[in-house]
């Protein structure tokens, strides 16, 4: 019987779109703008592009080339490079598994917000009323309506990690739906994934363009843009700037998960992966910059809006206290009038003084937010103040969904490709069943993140499941290809595939620059963890209406250790097992 | 005598209506904020309307038609526009109606009073009287469940369709391959086999040159 040929992408465009859809994810939207703001505004682009050239493009090309040459998922591919490296493939699969467990919860939240966008007014625009209808909910009064909607109505967050609470059925439903959507996309392998990535790769750009036009025309957007793009070049001397740039490039491209290898394994052997690597990494970086322009115009709008509300509140307070005519106090003459009132009615003014806040636009712009806080709180706050907020809300959350699902497709491909490659499993079960089982297991485990303390566990996974392990995996990958497989052999393979050998830039980066960079990142993170001592997290305090820092309990630290160990230990264990197996075989052969 | 009674009344009024007097309420209007360019100026006519509305509210509340416009006293009108008012009881001498009654009356008819001035609870404030905030309209089924249901049905339909199509495709492929196998078996039975190779394939007349090895000589480098 003829062996079933490997499924292929219909055309190279599907492959490029799949890579873009996977690499361009939520990190481009919610992490890069934050880094830009923290580390010198426009000046951050310098270390960012240097890291892209030193680290991003070479490592991406390496992974794509390995996948395309070996035509197997991560486990099979590394086994071919050297039998002792099967542990690297397994480590990639383990990390991808951890990632897919918690990443889909973000899609669940995006669904939740999307479904709630079909109301007028938007549910996060106003605070709900308290029980006797004389005012607003106390927790909502202390904080803002958007934060209340996120922490109370969406997450129903508990005060600390120890208080687990119960599973929130609404979030569980959304999570189930998110997994059903992912299952629908991966069910038929590349056949279905190839068509879905056309949408998940291009739709976010349409929405970003719409938001760019809307964002730039918002009142006060320019303030945000000026604030962001003024370069603060002194930040370049801060080592954290360079480390953040390197980390961002590394994680933004999704190296080390095995997804890129999986995608590339479905390519025609003669596909020009060098050109595709350059294209994908450039598109990923430009999308980050594009997204941060949009984010900063939104920031500027929100900061200006809050600043003007603050000023209006002060004006109202003064008008009411001194019974001044409406319209006599404006934003322009506020300072003079304040001095006049202070001089004319010193006692009453002194009484009022604690309530008169000093409104500052700078302070509003300085609030730097990243992660889920940016995506779900800051953006929803800006959206509620726009005209036709329902339309912009729907567009925005559909964009988040596309970005999230695109990344999930890559993650699940990283898990499923090795499973469908292995003859033991693939012969017994059709791929629909394997995909179904993987989605089901992930969904059930993911229900932990829908509990009241779920967001704290989410933060643990987000911060620790992938960071150190990936650095180690990619380091071993680069060293394996350059020194164990041999860079000359790799060159020859590329020549067979593409038709030309890689030039000196690629070779120097692969052999020296990238490994050195990864080693220094690794050392930095380890020393950082050791120096900080106990790990802490941000817990939501409902009585104060803000986040407070708490220490992780012992069992949470154990889980963190387990997460890191589970993936990193695979590499040496795999090498050890292969060594033992070879030894046993040699012994059994020699005794014959 | 007339002058004397008038002045006594005026002094009595001043006694009853002053800031922070017993049973007096402060009112604050924000006409320009509410109406912008269509704002009207606050003058004596508007004050008359206000007195009329308060008297109306008192009449509706206590359902005895004894409260007159002259029973409502306004004082300390500022530019803001804010003032104090108090409702006197004509049946009892020089006393004011208890604040709780006035508050209840205003609460009951707040809507009518607001509409008379084209204002709302926020722009026509009675400082000691808290307004009951109207709750947002809640539909019987939350909207999000409806959208969720629609999306869920679409996704499940898509999954079922793809799975069924996959099963059908696989059945067709299996049927094809079993048909092909059956055909091969039938052919094999009638053919004599020599060393596992059907005799027809072997051209017993002349030897066949195996093409793969034909170019053998060229593979080696010439000396």
From TrEMBL, chain A:
Annotated keywords: Glycoprotein, Membrane, Metal-binding, Sodium, Symport, Transmembrane, Transmembrane helix, Transport
Top-level taxonomic group: Eukaryota
Pfam families given in the database record: SNF
One GO term describing the cellular component: apical plasma membrane
Gene Ontology BP, a term: L-proline import across plasma membrane
Subcellular location: Membrane
Membrane-related topology note: Multi-pass membrane protein
KW Transport (keyword) present: yes
Single GO molecular function: L-proline transmembrane transporter activity
Membrane-spanning intervals of the chain: 12-32, 44-62, 83-103, 169-187, 196-222, 242-266, 278-299, 394-416, 437-458, 464-487, 508-527, 555-580
InterPro entries with a match to the protein in the record: Na/ntran_symport, Neutral_aa_SLC6, SNS_sf
Binding residues for Na(+): 23-24, 28, 252, 284, 403, 407
Keyword match Iron: no
Similarity comment: family membership: Belongs to the sodium:neurotransmitter symporter (SNF) (TC 2.A.22) family.
PANTHER family, per database record: SODIUM- AND CHLORIDE-DEPENDENT TRANSPORTER XTRP3, SODIUM/CHLORIDE DEPENDENT TRANSPORTER
Official protein name in the record: Transporter
Lineage, top ranks: Eukaryota, Metazoa, Chordata, Craniata, Vertebrata
UniProtKB/TrEMBL annotation, chain B:
A single GO BP: positive regulation of amino acid transport
Keyword Ribonucleoprotein listed: no
One Gene Ontology cellular component: plasma membrane
Topology relative to the membrane: Single-pass type I membrane protein
InterPro entries recorded: Collectrin (IPR042944), Collectrin_dom (IPR031588)
Keywords, sorted A to Z: Cell membrane, Glycoprotein, Membrane, Phosphoprotein, Signal, Transmembrane, Transmembrane helix
TM spans (from-to): 143-167
Ranges for domain Collectrin-like: 21-223
Superkingdom of the organism of origin: Eukaryota
Protein name: Collectrin
């Amino acid at each position: 019987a003829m062996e079933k040929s490997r499924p292929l992408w219909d055309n190279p465009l599907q492959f490029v779109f799949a890579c873009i859809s996977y690499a361009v994810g939520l990190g481009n939207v919610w992490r890069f703008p934050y880094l830009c703001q923290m580390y010198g505004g426009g000046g951050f682009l310098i270390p960012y592009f240097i890291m892209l050239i030193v680290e991003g493009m070479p490592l991406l090309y390496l992974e794509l080339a390995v996948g395309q040459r070996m035509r197997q998922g991560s486990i099979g591919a590394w086994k071919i490079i050297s039998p002792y490296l099967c542990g690297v493939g397994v480590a990639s699969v383990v990390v991808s598994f951890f990632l897919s467990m918690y990443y889909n919860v973000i899609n669940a939240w995006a669904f939740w917000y999307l479904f709630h966008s079909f109301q007028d007014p938007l549910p996060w625009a106003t605070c709900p009323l308290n029980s006797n209808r004389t005012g607003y909910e106390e927790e909502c009064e202390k904080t803002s309506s958007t934060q209340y909607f996120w922490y109370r109505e969406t997450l129903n967050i508990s005060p600390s990690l120890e208080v687990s609470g119960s599973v929130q059925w609404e979030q569980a439903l959304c999570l189930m739906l998110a997994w059903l959507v992912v299952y629908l996309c991966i069910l038929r392998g590349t056949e279905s994934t190839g068509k879905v990535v056309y949408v998940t790769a291009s739709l976010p750009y349409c929405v970003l363009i719409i938001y760019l036009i809307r964002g730039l025309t918002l009142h006060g957007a320019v303030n945000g843009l000026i604030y962001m793009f003024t370069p603060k070049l002194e930040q370049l001397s801060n080592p954290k700037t360079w480390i953040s740039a390197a980390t961002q490039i590394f994680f933004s491209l999704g190296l080390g998960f095995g997804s890129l290898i999986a995608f590339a394994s479905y390519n025609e052997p003669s596909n020009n992966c060098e050109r595709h690597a350059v294209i994908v990494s450039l598109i990923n970086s430009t999308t980050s910059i594009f997204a941060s322009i949009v984010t900063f115009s939104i920031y500027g709008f929100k900061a200006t809006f809050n600043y003007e509300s603050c000023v209006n509140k002060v004006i109202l307070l003064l008008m009411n206290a001194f019974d001044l005519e409406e319209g006599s106090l404006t934003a322009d003459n506020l300072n003079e009038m304040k001095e006049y009132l202070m001089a004319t009615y010193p006692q009453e003014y002194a009484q009022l003084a604690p309530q008169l806040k000093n409104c500052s636009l700078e302070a509003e712009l300085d609030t730097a937010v990243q992660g889920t806080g940016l995506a779900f709180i800051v953006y929803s706050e800006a959206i509620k103040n726009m005209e036709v907020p329902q339309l912009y809300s729907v567009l925005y959350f559909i964009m988040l969904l596309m970005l999230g699902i695109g990344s999930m497709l890559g993650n699940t491909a990283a898990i499923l490709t090795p499973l469908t490659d292995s003859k033991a499993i693939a012969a017994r079960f059709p791929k629909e069943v394997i995909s179904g089982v993987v989605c089901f297991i992930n969904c059930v485990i993911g229900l932990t993140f829908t509990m009241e303390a779920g967001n704290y566990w989410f933060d643990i996974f987000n911060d620790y499941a992938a960071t150190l392990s990936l650095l180690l995996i990619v380091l071993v990958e680069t060293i394996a290809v350059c020194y164990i497989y041999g860079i000359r052999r790799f060159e020859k393979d590329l020549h067979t595939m593409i038709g030309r050998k890689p030039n000196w830039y690629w070779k120097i980066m692969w052999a020296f620059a990238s490994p050195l960079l990864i080693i220094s990142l690794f050392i930095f993170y380890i020393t950082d963890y050791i120096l900080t001592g106990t790990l802490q997290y941000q817990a939501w305090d409902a009585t104060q209406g803000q986040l407070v820092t708490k220490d992780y309990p012992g069992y949470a630290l154990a889980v963190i250790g387990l997460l890191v160990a589970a993936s990193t230990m695979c590499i040496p264990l795999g090498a050890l097992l292969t060594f033992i197996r070879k030894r046993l075989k040699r012994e059994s052969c020699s005794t014959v | 005598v007339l002058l004397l009674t008038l002045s006594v009344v005026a002094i009595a009024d001043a006694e009853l209506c002053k800031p922070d007097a017993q049973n007096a309420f402060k009112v604050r209007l924000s006409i320009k904020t509410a109406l912008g360019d269509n704002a009207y100026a606050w003058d004596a006519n508007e004050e008359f309307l206000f007195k009329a509305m308060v008297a109306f509210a008192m009449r509706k509340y206590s359902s005895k038609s004894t409260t007159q416009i002259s029973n409502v006293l306004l004082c300390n009108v500022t530019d803001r526009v804010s003032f104090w008012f108090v409702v006197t009881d004509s049946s009892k001498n020089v006393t004011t109606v208890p604040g709780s009654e006035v508050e209840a009356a205003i609460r009951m008819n707040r809507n009518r009073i607001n509409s008379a001035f084209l204002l709302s609870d926020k722009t026509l404030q009675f400082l000691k009287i808290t307004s009951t905030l109207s709750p947002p309209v809640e539909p019987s089924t939350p909207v999000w469940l409806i959208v969720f249901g629609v999306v869920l049905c679409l996704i499940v339909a898509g999954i079922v369709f793809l799975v069924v199509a996959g099963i059908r495709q696989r059945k067709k492929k299996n049927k094809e391959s079993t048909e092909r196998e059956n055909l091969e078996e039938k052919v094999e039975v009638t053919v004599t086999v020599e060393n596992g190779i059907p005799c027809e394939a072997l051209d017993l007349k002349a030897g066949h040159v195996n093409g793969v090895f034909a170019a053998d000589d060229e593979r080696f480098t010439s000396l």
